[in-house]
Structures are given as structure tokens and as C-alpha cells.
Amino acid sequence: MATAARTTGQRPEMSATEWAARQQLAACYRIFDHLGWSELIYNHITLRVPEEENAFLINPFGLLYGEVTASNLVKIDMDGHVLDGSPYPVNRAGFTQHSVFHRHLPDAHCIIHTHTTAGMAVSATREGLTPTNFYAAAFIGRIAYHDFEGVTIRAEEGERLIAHLGERRIMMLRNHGTLVMAQSLPEAFLIQWMLQRACEIQVATGAAGTPVDIPPEVIAVHQRDLSGVQLPLGPGVPDFEAMVRKIDRIDSSWRD
User: What does DSSP assign to residue 42?
Assistant: First the structure.
């Protein structure tokens, strides 16, 4: 995509496709920071390296999202070995959770895990996400749930995560946060944005009064018709490109 693939500062020791993926992922970290979705140096957005079967990119542990750049992202394999000589460590919890999905789900090219206030609040309720607003209606029947088992650093939890996810690609980690995965980073970004909005509105609705559920037949129509209001560029592409333009006007250092 043109807005995240400028070659300024390209490192000769990597392919053009990897550099473009690095720039796209670095842009996403800066967008999350701009939107207030960062969590100090924690949480992760990971992206498979194009044309490499067992490698993905992850944020350097210890850096804020606002400090992530294309060149300081860490390239690791499915066993957590650093492949690009990076001096930065990788968060064990992030590797344990993300590697199991990248390893076992061929369509999980981008994975997003956040601890936003609204996402964590909804994940901590017995009802989970409820069919009470425009954005939530898009997710009804599409969300998996996984009970909290403590910080995710034990490999055996991966089997339960995969089992609980099933054929779905969005998960509420109960008492913990949200997990989104998709075939591209722009698509994952748009899903995350919509899920965040759904959670924010649900929390606000609960404070305002008694929520009104949307009938199942209306949800079915809503989900059927959503694709009719998207630009024909691919899921999330125009949305992500718009945010890249915004952060570029603020600070374009993520490109280097």
C-alpha cells in the first residue's frame, strides 16, 4: 500500500516486501499510540513476514509504541529465536500468545492484543459483548471467549486458546482484554477499531440507563449489508491509509 511503503531508509539486507511490512507495522504502532490504545511497553501487534513461512515481526520489549520504527521491530521465528540480530528482547507473554496463532492458523497474518480500558471492562463482565449498539451488532456470533489463566507465559495454554477460538478470529480474553486476528494488517486494524468502539459504547450505555438489545433478525441484516458501505480497496485499507496520513503529519520517524 502506497502510504506505508515509502522506501526512505530501506536497509539493503532485507527484501523490499519485508521492509514494506515493517513500515506498515511501525505505522500501526504509532496509530495505536495516537489513539490511546498503548499500554506502556506492553501488549503486541504482530505481523507475518511476507514470503517467509515461519517468521513474524513484533515490537521491541522496553520501547513505547511511540518509539517503534520500521528498523527496530524484531523479527523472530515461531520458537522465539531472533532472526535479524536485534539487540532488543521480546516480551515472553507476547511471544507465547502470538506464536501459537501464527504457527497454527495460516490466515492469522496480523494479530492484535490490547488492554484498552473499555475492552478490559467488557471482557470482565459475565455477558461479554452484548447486542446493544451499531458496532456490537457486527460482532454478535463472531466472538470466542477464553477464561483468564494468569499471565500468558505457559506454552500449554496455547492449546486451549486454539480450541476456544475455533473457527472465529476475534476473542475476548476474560478479565484480560481483546484479541483480533486477520489476513492483513489493515483488516485487523479496522476490526480492532470497531471492537473498541463497540466496547466503549457498551460501557457508556450501561452508565446511561437500561440497554436495549438489537433483535437477532436485525443483526443478521446488519451483518449482511455492512460490506455495502465499504470502499472497494480491501477490508480496512482506506481506514488504515487515512490514519497513516494523520500520523505522518504528526511524526514520520516510524518510517525509518
Answer: B
Contact 152, 97 (CB under 8 A): yes
Cα–Cα distances in angstroms (integers) from residue 203 to residues 34, 95, 161, in the given order: 22, 30, 26
Q: Among 68, 90, 64, which Cα is nearest to 77's?
A: 90
Radius of gyration of the chain (CA): 18
Which residue's entry shows cell 507473554? 93
Each residue of 67-88: pLDDT tens digit? 999 999 999 999 999 999 999 9
Is 161 in a helix, a strand, or coil?
Answer: helix
Q: Name the strand (E) or helix (H) holding 204.
A: helix 185-208
Give this prediction's pTM.
0.93
| Separation between Cα atoms, residue 32 and residue 254, nearest integer Å | 13
What does the pLDDT look like over 38-49, one tens digit per residue? Answer: 999 999 999 999
Cα 6 from chain centre: 22
Instruction: Decide: 35 and 2 in contact? Cβ < 8 Å.
Output: no
What beta strand segments (E) does 62-109 contain? Answer: 74-77
The CA–CA distances, whole Å, from 243 to 36, 151, 185, 203, 226 equal: 13, 31, 13, 25, 21
Distance, in Å, from the CA atom of 169 to the CA atom of 171, rounded to the nearest integer, reads 7
